[in-house]
Design goal:
It contains one helix and 16 strands. With about 200 residues, the protein is mainly beta. It folds into two domains: about 100 residues, Lipocalin (Beta Barrel), CATH 2.40.128.280; about 90 residues, Protein HRI1, C-terminal domain (Lipocalin, Beta Barrel), CATH 2.40.128.310. Strands 1-3-4-5-6-7-8-9 form an eight-stranded antiparallel beta barrel. Strands 14-13-12-11-10-16-15 form a seven-stranded antiparallel beta sheet. A hairpin with a 3-residue loop joins β3 and β4. It is globular.
């Protein structure tokens, strides 16, 4: 489990690299629950869009992301950084090799709940991270492509970002539904209509 202070939705303010380059325009969403994360990155123009989902491991000030699925593919490179909380809603991240620095700020979303799902008929995995106002859905195969969509809730859930050109339609899920799922349950998430998934852990 990650420390409670990590849980929520974080947006990246910018990244500054040791080679002198920087990026202040790519939209980055980092959803973090007690165990799982979903990360989506959309550059201006959508060229080079990427995302990943999996487990997060925190050891002191060191935070490591271990994707189980990724778009376009899982990287063999270690994804970890030194984390410094400037206050409850701002994190400064520095690469272990000092190759970059990033600043993150928290979006108001309330408690973030995470669920990992498995397709019993294939190697496909899915992750649902959901709070009161924000939700992220990721699914894919460890050996293949994946899809990730971010939703925001005002009067209803609306897709605001996705690896897909057209985000999937959504019949309104509820936070209460996800909270009622237990490990081993067979469920049919509204985000994957017509398909049964096994809850592997939450």
């Amino acid at each position: 489990m990650v420390p409670a202070e990590y849980e929520g939705l974080w947006r990246r303010k910018g990244i500054w690299r040791s080679n002198g380059s920087s990026d202040l325009t790519t939209q980055v969403w980092w959803f973090q629950a007690a165990r799982y994360h979903i990360d989506l990155r959309i550059p201006v123009g959508r060229a080079g869009i990427s995302g990943f989902a999996g487990e997060t491991v925190v050891d002191g000030d060191r935070c490591e992301w271990r994707p189980a699925i990724a778009c376009p593919a899982i990287s063999a490179d270690l994804d970890a950084g030194w984390m410094r909380f400037d206050d409850a809603d701002h994190i400064h991240e520095a690469g272990l090799d000092h190759s970059y620095e990033e600043d993150w700020y928290r979006e108001p979303t309330g408690a973030m709940h995470g669920v990992r799902l498995e397709d019993p008929d294939s190697d496909e995995l899915a992750y649902l991270l959901i709070g009161e106002r924000w939700m992220a859905w990721a699914r894919g195969s460890p050996s293949g492509a994946c899809e990730i969509t971010i939703y925001h809730h005002d009067q209803q859930w609306q897709a605001v970002a996705s690896t897909l050109d057209a985000a999937p339609s959504l019949t309104t899920p509820t936070l209460q539904q996800a909270l009622q799922w237990n490990s081993g349950d067979m469920v049919m998430p509204a985000l994957a209509p017509g398909r049964a998934w096994r809850v592997s852990s939450r």
